[in-house]
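User: ok so my PI wants both of these folded by tonight, can you help

Assistant: No problem, let's get them done. Here's the first:
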Amino acid sequence: MREPASESVEVAPGSLHSCIAALIAAGDCGFADVLNALRQFVDAPTAPAERRLRLFLRHLLFLLESGDELYADCVLRSDDRGRTVLIAHRIAREAGEGVMKTQVRLAPWPLARESPALAQGAFAVHSHDADIVVHRGPVRIEAALQDMGVPVDAAALRDDEIDAFYAHREALRRAVRPSGRGVDASWYADARDDQDRVAQACAQAFEFDASDGERIDRGQPLPAIGRATHPPLGAALHVLPRLLSPAGPGSVLQALAMDLPEIAAAGFDAVLLGVVDRQSTDLYYVEGDDGALHPYLNNHGYWSSGECGVDPALGEADDYIALRHAAAACGMRLIQDSVLGTMGYPPQLPRLAPPASRCTPLALALADQVSPLDEPGCFLGGLESCDAIPSPGGLALADYIQVVTRTHLGEYYQLPRPNLFDPQVRERVLARAQWQIREARVSAFRVDMAKHLGLAPLRAALDALREAVRDADAAPFVAVLEYWSLHYRELRFALSAVGPPVEGVYLYDFPLAHALQQTLLAGGDWSRLLPAIAEQRLHWQVPPCCLVPIVIDHDPSFRPIFNGTAHTRDLVVTGLALALAMSANGPSVYCGYDDRRAAPAELDRYFDYSEQHARKAMPGPLTRDPDGPGAVFARLLAAVKLHGVLADWDGGALAFEGDAQRLRIVRTLVDGSRRRTACFCVARDGSAATAGADGEQLVFASGEGPSVALFVG
């Protein structure tokens, strides 16, 4: 880990490349440091700067110093290759221009050429030995992408409110990063200790190249992992309760409880319930590079205030307890989504705060105890964000340890981050989930953003939840970790990082989700992509019994596919069938069902519209619409259960037969001493049901293009 930054940033005269690199290496430079560093190329007569660069910087400095400043800050962010970019942005009220935003990205590599999306719509770009990309535009309120549904005028902020908006943001910045200079000594020690834990987990997770012990080669087998430690999980329906709008007088949770028998009848064994915590705010303005402020509605529930109990918008504590008991009565598991590593955006302006909020604008209520964001040791800030780990090709161990440590420790989404390394803070954060265990006997959790918690806090949190479940004498503990990665190497690392023990801890199969998306929406060759998935699991020693397949998530990469047409219905069913074919557990199904009025008719425009336009209440539409994928998937699940396709799979090799037009996936089933086979067939046209082999019985068929069939033999 980098040592804490010094009290001032010294940048020696030299090339622009070295100047930007020094600013980034400082760890947490201030806005004034960036200005001073750039001035040296304008003012110092011996600075080796070209005339064009001098003119560019002279104009840039004019933009960054003109007008009455309302807000200015610098942050470090990483691109999709894990390389660090320094971002400086300033808001100022300028004569004749109004309130203007100027944002500058600085990178000691060809930013504009290698990351063109970051330079799209740029006001100016300098590209030579280093890159500077400038965005500039008036601060303005853009129209909301959805019906906000809250009594707030999101169309405009008055001039005085724009000033107050940025005054509040400045106060928040000072609270979150009171020193403005790097990481304090105690946090640096925790970060260094966590880096040691990453190194230990790597030693347990990987084998190394025999000719070069510093390069990761493949995964080490996990001892004693199987159905005894990871029993089969059935299909789970992901429900975001803040999207539900009950027709009757009851609460959201009461209405959902009424739907549970219908969900169970549709073949689901669990409901993955979105976050039910009390929220800090319902509306947040997302700030674009060019000054656009987009009103964004909290319809997901991840902006927790830190208070225990249930969000009043969803119901009361008794409603939540009754919901868990209703799920058990239907033979279903309630998996509770839980966010531990980040907290909600504090209200940006008093008039934007929900009336029932108990949180002050610069504080959150951890376990009902108000905690200002500048409380020493309670919240973390100023750490570099990193989400992308480089692809697996021959990565050196030392480099891998560095980037994984940064991934686990970096701040994310600029949300307040509690210091989970402090046992007292961690105990207060976990109080929300422990309340759910104690009061409602919940025993299964989804842990959001698990790879951004730090290894020590992640292990400690799982141990604490497991102990609370045991003390409550509830059902066996289950945790499904959202450890986001498209590489099985990271999932193999995670299996060593979270244990011991690893019993009952599952990971989402995001590499499979990506392959399915490429297959279904980008015309990918499933006869090439899916065998590669099986090979990578074996190479990195990730047992399928530890993986929960996911097809359509609420992440922008997994927006709802179904738009009311038979073709998109067949696409959803095909994706779910392939998830079952490739997995030892049932899929987690997120059906962000559209209303058929906002969604595009053409599938090639699928990525052009936001799920914010189209998501409606569920699970009703999924289970009741005769034209939707729910009824078809229910028949598939019934066949899978009847023939033990999940429960009896030996977890071994899959056999693939076919090509890009039609594919058969054959798996061996073991029922005592009897060995059988199950074959999933998918076809681009309607021919899947005709692809059975001798001795195979057709037990399910659906779709015209693509089509799906299940055979048993």
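One down. Here's the second:
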Amino acid sequence: MSEEPSDSSRPKSAPAASAAPRPGPAASGPAPSEAGTPAQASGASDTSEPGAEQAEQAEQAEQAEQAEQAEGRIPAPAVTPAGSAEHGTGQGGAPEPPKVPAYAQQRPGQLTRTNPWGKPPPSAVSRLRSVKPGPVHTGTLWAVLATALLSTVLLGDGIGLNVLIVALPAAAGAYIAARAAGRRLRPWSVAWGTGGLALLVVPALRDAGWPTFLALVSALALGSLALHGSRSWLGVFLGSLGVFTSVFESLGWGARGVRERMSGSRGRFGVVFRSAAVAVVLLVVFGALFASADAAFADLLGSLTPDVSVGDSPWRIFLGVIGLVGALAAAYTAAAPVRWDRATVRPGKARGRLEWALPLVVLNLLFAVFLAIQLTVLLGGYDKVMTETDLSYSEYARQGFWQLLWATVLTLGVIALALRWAPRGGARDRTLVRGVLGTLCLLTLVVVASALRRMDLYVDAYGLTRLRISVAAVELWFGVILVLIMAAGVFGPRLLPRAVAASAAVGVLAFGLVSPDGLIAEQNVQRYRNDHSIDIEYLKGLSADAVPALDTLPEPLRSCALADIQRGLRGSDEPWYATSWGEKRARDILGDWDPGYRTLECRGLGSGDNGDERDTGTDDPYDPYDPY
């Protein structure tokens, strides 16, 4: 093996050779072709005394210059003399890199200086995003454009079937982007996507705004989960909101795709744009002529086409921008999702068996004592309870429901913390955890049943309202979560986060499909038929979903309950795509009915349920816990 000689083993004639090109007497030596080897050239220069002196002076000057450079007093020269053997050229004739001055050299232990105007460090979302998406697909661009146009035209008149119509091209654009990126369609992604589209049916069916709002929020969360495909607790939570992290990056992605198409299409996009513009002009001109020629065609055209006026143009443009950005962000996320499952939470420190189990065993005993007393209520022993406590049915129910609701919430938190710090030593520890937490879940289920029974008494005494049906639905969902936790203890917790999210989505969908306003009206009307009082002031504030039940009331209660709803229906002229099925059914029932003079008798009616049906002696005019 051959090695390159070190600096100390090089011939001493190198400085003389490096000084040869300098002006002086030594320059009159033999020609380069006669110099021979470096040793011969050195020997030739030593034969002359003036040449030796000149070489010595040049060597001293070179050493002095190098010493000054090392001390940092002068910078290193940018260009070295040609033919220098020491610092001009390296081996093989390749130029050597310039030496770094002392003031620019980094000393050991010194921190590296960063440029404040340089490239910023990657964000947490960028680190979790596995890959950058490739060029945007043409089909995705057309789907995004269709979503923007439909949002501009349809969403400005209200909420109904138009939300589902706008969501379909956005979902198609995301699917095309995912396929172009090489992603496969997985079963859970299909489930999340199908569930999100199913939730968008609720605005098309129900006129009430509060179940519609819950359905829209849940549909957005399920759509985001379908794009990300998360499975852990933190991944499911962040994945339901993660589509918002792609908004800004998707804008540049879409702009680059449009720019590439415009520069490389050879006028094809211009042809398509001009053709579409001509088609729109022809439709407008001839459609207006045919509409003016025939009244039936004008009515059909007016019912099918949206009414776009100049006054609401800014609002419609804003909705179009929202649709464009949302569809583009969904497509970008589908092409390059953020892997939220990688943002893991460190497990808690495992505790000893006694330290972990003792507090939970004490809590289980407390639950058991409380539920032993509650068994008398669940089995129908209310008379004994009311005799001992001197409370009415409604007061007993109202006193305990909210406490039991909070007890259920806190128990779920205790279970989550207990699982975090549970002992993880082996099979005996797993058996201990399953036994203690399974008992706690089972006892908490009885607490949920007791709370729901109290709510039933509450509704029987005061009637059903929006707040009462909402909290009862939430309490029922807590019971479902407890059942899922118990099932995870038997079959494994791998599917538990996604099962909890799916149960929430199913609950919101079922809540919208049962028509809560209609259910409230039916329950209160049935109570009135059973010789209970009725709160007309509350019922007349319900949506059009309550019309079928309120229409069965006798006069003047019917007119008092439906007068405000009929005025609202007459004052609205929403198109078909922004009208819910509940509103259409109410119009069919009421028709052109005018309450007229009948509403004058509403002043003498009672305005609330005082809970005196069971002769409890209370004179509470209304439930102070229900702001609705």
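The radius of gyration is 41 Å. DSSP finds 26 helices and no strands in the chain. Good luck tonight!
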